[in-house]
Amino acid sequence: QLAQKYDPQRERELRAWIEGTTGRRIGDNFMDGLKDGVILCELINKLQPGSVPKVNEPVQNWHKLENIGNFLRAITRYGVKPHDIFEANDLFENTNHTQVQSTLIALASQAKTKGNNVGLGVKYAEKQQRRFHPEKLREGRNIIGLQMGTNKFASQQGMTAYGTRRHLYDPKLGTDQPLDQATISLQMGTNKGASQAGMTAPGTKRQIFEPSLGMEHCDTMTIGLQMGSNKGASQTGMTVYGLPRQVYDPKYCGGPELFGHDGYDG
């Protein structure tokens, strides 16, 4: 995927710029011509003289890696952002040519920003630093910024005093607008059309009875339906509380006169 992002057109533009700046030919293979780091060090020395004081002859691999490392540190000081810079192995071991190309384009953009005649890359915007007088800064503290909103065209018309209750009503219901604290607002419900007809005084007992039973209005002497009903009941045959009730069967027992005083048949 990284190889697919490599742009051959950008390579041709970079080749023309580097060869024109250094005066040296890279070779048929662009990346192989840069692998020893010599042309790269000469490029940054042309853009900013003295960036790499000593360029090693590419005799051994560590000479080449040292040249690449010196180039990367030099372009960092030149102004290229660290996240735009490739690693030495990306070029030396051919692991990420796309990142190498991106770094060279970022270097061209930085060179264009510094005033060099470069035909590729983009010119970075220059930093514009503004300084304000301390008195102006203090005056700004008294102004409500737009980030906090705006009070333009605002007024307190129709606002009530703090703590005053605001009544809610619906004009469609035909109710008058509440004007004082004696009016029950819709938040508390409404008493429109209501009356106290049939209501008893607080604490008065309300009697419950069934008209179909023909009972009179109950009083304190009447046993309520909640306790059952004694209608049609009597105490006939009831004995005094505490007396024993004899139970016997006339079929098996004779009258009391058949028994003696001792209770045995005589």
TrEMBL record:
GO biological process terms on file: actin filament organization; actomyosin structure organization
Pfam families the UniProt entry points to: Calponin, CH
Native organism taxonomy: Eukaryota, Metazoa, Chordata, Craniata, Vertebrata
Function description: Thin filament-associated protein that is implicated in the regulation and modulation of smooth muscle contraction. It is capable of binding to actin, calmodulin and tropomyosin. The interaction of calponin with actin inhibits the actomyosin Mg-ATPase activity.
Family affiliation: Belongs to the calponin family.
Annotated keywords: Actin-binding, Calmodulin-binding, Phosphoprotein, Repeat
Protein name per UniProt: Calponin
Superkingdom assignment: Eukaryota
GO molecular function terms attached to this record: actin filament binding; calmodulin binding
A Gene Ontology cellular-component term: actin cytoskeleton
Domain Calponin-homology (CH) intervals: 8-111
Source organism of this protein record: Tachuris rubrigastra
Xref: InterPro entries: Calponin-like, Calponin/LIMCH1, Calponin_repeat, CH_dom, CH_dom_sf, SM22_calponin
